[in-house]
Amino acid sequence: MHPPLPPCPDPERYILVKTREGNFWRLKRGLKKVAVLNAKMLEHAGHLSVSSKAASRMVQVLRPHLCGLSPGRINTRFSSFLHKSLARFGKADYTFFNDYDLQKTNPLSSLINKVPLVKREEGKIGLLFSWPLRMDMLVTKNQIINGFEFSAILLYGDPCRDECPAVTSVISPVYLSRTKEADCALWLQIPPGNQSWILFCKVSCFEDNAPAHHSKHYAMKVMAVNG
Predict the structure, then answer these.
(1) Sign of CA dihedral 133, 135, 139, 140
(2) Is the pLDDT of residue 130 over 70?
(3) 197 dihedral zone (left: phi>0; alpha: psi -120 to 50; beta)
(4) pTM for this one?
């Protein structure tokens, strides 16, 4: 039982709003005093605008590599990571992307028993799957999964510039149930200079020798960053 509704304070200025939690009088739109933003709030709003546009650029260049995934509100998450770095360091970088799984409900650890080793050598960075690649290292989620492949994806550049960041990638062979045990190393060139970059690892499963349909058979995670 909701408490009784008080009399309308001013029929010219208020309207009745009915909700499941009870009814109340609300000031008509356009009658509230315009709030004056202080300097900190204006700075915060500016950061949000910058991070939102930068996140959109990142997702735009990553889109071909998101095939099979269901990453949800990826723009919002990317924007929040960039906004954190803007607030803390005064510039947007990739620091807060580290260890981020693009599918929270289906992380990389839900598909493979061991994560690859990240190794950096002069001028390049790689994902090393140093254990024998075979079907029992994959966490299969139905009976018709019979293969998998790995991708190393490197996004680099300043996302806050007008031009989009760039992406390079390398994909492993498809390892099917009949494939003999093998090792796998995926190497990518590090961009010249001290550019910011993110290294992703993606795993994709195969059903009856074709790419799996459901997103639970895919995973993608940030393995390393250079802010």
Answers:
(1) positive
(2) no
(3) beta
(4) 0.77
